[in-house]
Design goal:
The radius of gyration is 18 Å and the shape is globular. The chain is built from three helices and 17 strands. The longest helix has 15 residues. The chain has 232 residues and is an alpha+beta fold. It has a seven-stranded mixed beta sheet with strand order 1-16-15-13-10-9-8, with helices on both faces. A six-stranded antiparallel beta sheet has the order 4-3-2-5-6-7, with no helix packed on it.
Amino acid sequence: MLALPLPPLKPCRFLRRKNRFLVEADVGPLHLANSGRMAELLRPGTPCHYHPRPTPRTQGRMVLVEAEGVLVGVDAALAGRLLELLLRQGAFGPLGALRKEVRLREERLDFWARIGEEEAFLEAKNCNRVAEGLALFPDAPTLRGARHLRLLADLARQGVLAYAVWMVQHPLAQAFALDPEDLPLWEAAREAERAGVRLLAYRVRPSLEALHLEVPLPWVWLTPPGGSGRPP
């Protein structure tokens, strides 16, 4: 099993969210690298774990939250590192070269890679919203996510390998779906799939020491409200 080591963590308790990327905990302000709402996770008094690294504004970075008796990862920036781990271990084929944060058509994709003899572009997304075993993305509307999927679709139509990979940092996830309430994202994903983009989701089990990559999750297409959008 592949695992991404975590830095040393300390316990704390969540008090309130101050803005998109800053929370107040009982140890002081913490950076939260996640713009999702996470209302079901971030409740006053919730036990959390953070990496202490004081700055002028914060006491460190929140990494894990305790919910439903399990640890859930809330640091969205780690999705890219998990995807890099898969790439370097040859999960998508023999890796010949890798570049990070590639700018293309006024957008930025997480990776360009040479896999075997082929060129590939890959984007990592983070998910930690799970309800009754179903992981749902996004937790808040993401026009940027839709743009990334359309860019990947264009690349796939040109014969380039293109991947969108969701890392679900929640051990209770049994399947993955895009929330059709975000219709632009849902439609962009359908377009990407038809164009040949490989849409993947992996379950990640957090521990206090590491994020453990487990199994690819089955993909579920939910119907948009009112039956709008093209059928799966």
